[in-house]
């Protein structure tokens, strides 16, 4: 993945290019068709996503609690809290996401603690 692609995402917009160069090679782009379950409540938290394009609904206990779209981060809470997925995310349109695996969190903690802080603030705001 290219650093400029990461820079377009609000989560990474203020991160220095040098820091982003450390994680860019380990990120990947995934796509999900409308109606596909991106993550399932109670599942393992192995990665998180930043939505580049598209939308999804967020459900907890079968009830829709939110809609997410471009710039939003999903799946970070389970990784930060080392817990199972807290909600089911289903694509409501074709989605393009940047996927970051769990082992990248430790690299990010060292090279870009401000991103980890933003992720933690997102979790606190949602709870």
Give a description of the structure.
By secondary structure, this protein is an alpha+beta fold. The protein has one domain: Jelly Rolls, CATH 2.60.120.10. Helices cover 31% and strands 31% of the residues. The protein has five helices and eight strands. The protein has helices spanning 3-7, 17-23, 76-81, 104-111, 113-126, and strands spanning 28-32, 37-39, 47-53, 56-60, 63-68, 73-74, 88-91, 95-101. The strands form two sheets. A four-stranded antiparallel sheet has the order 1-8-3-6. A hairpin with a 2-residue loop joins strand 4 (56-60) and strand 5. Helix 2 (17-23) runs antiparallel to helix 4 (104-111) and helix 4 (104-111) packs across helix 5. The protein is globular, with a radius of gyration of 14 Å. The protein starts with a helix and ends with a helix. The mean pLDDT is 88.
């Amino acid at each position: 993945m290219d650093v400029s692609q990461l820079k377009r995402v609000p989560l990474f917009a203020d991160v220095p290019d040098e820091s982003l160069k450390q994680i860019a090679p380990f990120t990947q782009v995934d796509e999900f068709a409308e109606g596909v379950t991106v993550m399932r409540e109670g599942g393992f938290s192995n990665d998180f996503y930043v939505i580049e394009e598209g939308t999804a609904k967020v459900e907890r206990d079968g009830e829709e609690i939110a809609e997410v779209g471009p710039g939003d981060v999903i799946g970070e809470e389970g990784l930060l809290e080392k817990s199972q997925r807290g909600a089911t995310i289903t694509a409501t349109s074709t989605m393009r996401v940047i996927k970051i695996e769990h082992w990248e969190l430790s690299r990010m903690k060292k090279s870009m603690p401000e991103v980890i802080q933003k992720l933690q603030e997102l979790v606190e705001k949602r709870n």
